[in-house]
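Q: Hi! First time doing this. I have a protein sequence and I read that you can turn it into a structure. Is that right? Here it is:
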Amino acid sequence: MNKDNMLSNLTIVLCVYGRSEFSERFLKYMDKIGYYFPILVADGDDSPQLKNLIQQHKELDIKLVTFKQKEKYKDYYSMIVNALSAVTTEYSMLADNDDFVVKTGLNKLLHFLDNNPDYISAGTSLLRFQIDNHATKTYGNNISIFEKYLHYRDEEPLHRWEDQFQQAILNFQPNFYNVFRTEGLKHIWSEILSLNFSDLTIMELYKICRAPTIGKQKSFDNFFHYIRQSGTGSSSASYDFSLNLVQSDLPSDIRLLSQELSEKVYSDNEHRSKLSNQILENYAESLNNYLPNILLRFRFKRLYDLKQKFVQMLGSIPLMNEIIHQIKDKKILAQFKSTNSEDPELLEELSNLKNFLKS
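A: Yes, that's right. Below is the predicted 3D structure, encoded as structure tokens:
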């Protein structure tokens, strides 16, 4: 099967809510690279502007599903379930409109899944790029890759479920943007809708843990298929972890997750109870590692403010920022050059993307 035929068997489910300028950029880029394969846009805002944007890209193979989101986060889960129900291809993946896919990487993942039917999903270590020192912009002058997600596991599940869930919690390796077999992805999201987690981090953790209980999962570290933009999502400076914590019901969510997962892998109550308790302990440990960094700004406010002023001072020196970002960019790309010397298309796509993003 040639590369184009492989991509025709994958549906990219683009989940959007507002931010039409990013949707416009995403569609323009897909048009530019000739990505004339199935794209399903799930619009949670039912925006007339988005419909007009899609009309401007008639050569793209786009199907639009609208779902007016009102109830947080249940309507978001419902939108994804509804969107996936309209997918007819064997494979599917979720995407956000401020990110980009890499055709060469997608082809590699699809080739792997085609030849390994016992795997439910496959992915890569994600890359992150920034525009003009992490600005919330669609285009800019200074474009660089500054981070590659940490890679912990090539193959999942591990031999013991206790080890699998412990590693999934303590050594976070996302599968949110993996390429999935569509039936498996539909199954997981229907469960997420039923469980209706109030915290999105628990929802994502459930997806990470649940997938390997259905089928094997592969993660590659020597190429990439998905690139995320910094400064545009919940990891940006405007995100308030503490506020999100009190507005959600995280304790109930993690208890529900631990109970559901333990019941999925064990049939006897003794093993279920032990595994459920272990998952709670592992999650508590992860919070112990994470929360001190969040609380530093409140416990040592003067020191934190001083650090922020220093960071802002460095940030006000464009040349300094550009040098730092370019060093990181070259270091990350050097890793891929050494492992993809016989496949230059991967790095060529990345170079073309950078040029596209320059205003």
